[in-house]
Design a protein that fits this description.
The protein is of the alpha/beta class and 305 residues long. The chain has one domain: 3-Layer(aba) Sandwich (UDP-N-acetylmuramoyl-L-alanine:D-glutamate ligase). Helix content is 34%, strand content 22%. The protein is built from 10 helices and 15 strands. It has a 9-stranded mixed beta sheet, sandwiched between helices. The chain has a 4-stranded mixed beta sheet with strand order 3-2-8-9. A two-stranded parallel ribbon has the order 5-7. Strand 8 and strand 9 form a beta hairpin. Helix 1 crosses helix 8 and helix 8 packs antiparallel against helix 9. The longest helix is centred in the last third of the chain and has 16 residues.
Length: 305
């Protein structure tokens, strides 16, 4: 990696197989629609969004020794993601994410086969520690094990931002909350981590205060079509969604986190970071892919802010 300042992302990489229904879905039956196959994964999506927004990024992950890995490497190189610290795990397939979207573009259900992420151990990262120690910021996703997340939290001084990934994986972050610079759970993930139900804005503030009490400095709780709640010691509120066409919501949270993280790194207020994140999410929603290749920082500032 060059000496330029960069963000390190540690997390999962998938080959995304996504089905888009052309009509209202009928469960238990064959539905007409479209199927696409593109590189994805929370960590990889965040890294690609960061690169498309013009900030240098290195991705630390694990890939299988198959054709999916070859396509992912080719695609990452084409959009400026440094993979020099990512290794090949022989005999294990590259992670695959199978998603079914309804006619409105929302994910109805998904299955993630991510066994290769088990190879991203503390020992694996120790051999690639330079990628982390020389970064300005580290973004992790909860595809990593609790042990690996703890290793990163204990060994690194750069600001760490976390994506809980899913309701099932969010609890893996519980042990490192006090080390996090920022976190971006959705409503369900925030409820699981805090143990509190979110049914109102007052509930959001109470859960936000809980995260701050646990040591997290900045909190975003994404609310789908209801926008995003943000909170730190200085400010809190809700930024609504940016109106526009929705082809697919797959990857919108990853676009949000990439743009919002860059904003924090550049010294913007949390509310400004949330607005920039929502703008990036709106651009993502226009595309059937998990990352919209048209994403640019100058277009966000011009069109949305």
């Amino acid at each position: 990696m060059a000496a330029r300042p960069y963000i390190a992302v540690v997390g999962g990489v998938n080959m995304d197989i996504t089905g888009f229904s052309g009509t209202e879905l009928v469960l238990g039956d064959s539905n007409p629609g479209q199927v696409t196959m593109t590189p994805g994964g929370v960590g990889r999506n965040i890294a690609e969004n960061i690169a498309r927004l013009g900030f240098p990024v290195t991705l630390v992950t694990a890939l299988g020794d198959d054709t999916h890995a070859q396509e992912i490497r080719r695609h990452c190189a084409s959009c400026g993601i440094d993979l020099s610290y990512s290794g090949v795990i022989f005999g294990v397939p590259t992670s695959t994410y199978l998603c079914i979207n309804d006619s409105k573009g929302d994910c109805l259900c998904a299955i993630a086969d991510m066994a290769v992420c088990d190879a991203i151990t503390p020992e694996y990262l120790q051999n690639r520690i330079r990628a982390l120690t020389q970064s300005q910021m580290i973004i992790v996703d909860a595809n990593l094990s609790e042990e690996t997340l703890a290793f990163i939290a204990q060994s690194q001084s750069a600001p760490i931002i976390a994506d809980p990934v899913s309701s099932k994986k969010a609890p893996r972050l519980a042990g490192i909350l006090g080390s996090l610079y920022a976190i971006k759970p959705n409503r369900a993930e925030a409820e699981i981590l805090s143990g509190m139900k979110i049914s109102s804005q007052e509930d959001l503030q109470r859960v936000g205060e809980w995260f701050l009490y646990e040591g997290v400095r900045h909190v975003w709780i994404t609310l789908g079509r209801d926008g995003v709640f943000y909170m730190n010691e200085e400010e809190h509120g809700i930024v609504p969604c940016v109106p526009g066409p929705v082809v697919s919501t797959n990857g919108c949270g990853d676009a949000f986190l990439a743009a919002a993280s860059i904003a924090l790194l550049e010294g913007k207020k949390l509310s400004e970071a949330a607005r920039l994140g929502q703008a990036a999410s709106a651009v993502c929603a226009r595309s059937p892919r998990a990352v919209n290749a048209d994403l640019r920082m100058d277009s966000l500032n011009f069109e949305f802010l």
